[in-house]
Sequence to fold (121 residues):
Amino acid sequence: METKELICINCPMGCPLTVTLENGVVTSVTGNTCKRGEIYAKKEVTSPTRIVTSTVKVEQGNTPMISVKTKEDIPKGKIFECVEALKDVVVKAPIHIGDVVLENVADTGVDIVATKEAKRI
Fold:
């Protein structure tokens, strides 16, 4: 039997969670005050994911860079691949919030989208 201690990040309460596993399978979650905490804990110890945020360069825009993020969370182990894939991305203005900047980043099936606008100059 193995236990892991986590702090839930699904809401501002920050519940301290204790997850018990047997042979890699979650057998119990304690400390959560809502169902979301239990769901978060199970996912975090078996298949952790993250939203990745970064920036990319803009050509012919009113700003030299825009912020971007993964449209959905990706496996935690793919974060560095994702950031590496963004290193040489350059987009041409105009860019609107939600525009896809890079498709299927790091073979995750998840797109990178703009979170800031850039007007063409």
